[in-house]
Amino acid sequence: MKTFRILTICGTGIATSTVAAEKCKQYLTKRGLKVEVVECKAVEASGKIPVYSPHVVVATTLVNDSALHGTKKFSGLPFLTGVGMDKLADEIAAYLQSLE
């Protein structure tokens, strides 16, 4: 089974990216996907993406698209608010499955 890499990004790389990371793991594992999630600050994203090579980015803050180096981005706000978590997880899962 392929392991998908996800980079969660927030302003400080501590609080909201950690929540988003845990929810990603939980909700995508329930959907039968194997995921590895790493967290970082928004200012680190541009340097982290070429090294980590994530399949997707889940951001809880604004991130400049040029910093993403073409990586598909999803808004992680539903993982923080609880509103629309299943829908977001379904969207991320569908995208990741399309990469297989």
Automatic annotation (TrEMBL):
One Gene Ontology biological process: phosphoenolpyruvate-dependent sugar phosphotransferase system
Q: Which organism encodes this protein? A: Pelosinus fermentans B4
The membrane-spanning stretches of this chain are none
The protein depicted here goes by the name Phosphotransferase system lactose/cellobiose-specific IIB subunit
- Matches recorded under InterPro entries: PTS_EIIB-like_sf, PTS_EIIB_2, PTS_EIIB_2/3
Swiss-Prot/TrEMBL keywords: Transferase
**Residue intervals of the PTS EIIB type-2 domain:** 4-100
> Gene3D superfamilies from the xrefs?
3.40.50.2300
User: The organism's lineage?
Assistant: Bacteria, Bacillati, Bacillota, Negativicutes, Selenomonadales
- Superkingdom of source: Bacteria
Keyword Ion transport applies: no
One molecular function GO term is: protein-N(PI)-phosphohistidine-sugar phosphotransferase activity
Which Pfam families would you find in this protein's record?
PTS_IIB
Which SUPFAM superfamilies does this entry report, sorted A to Z? PTS system IIB component-like
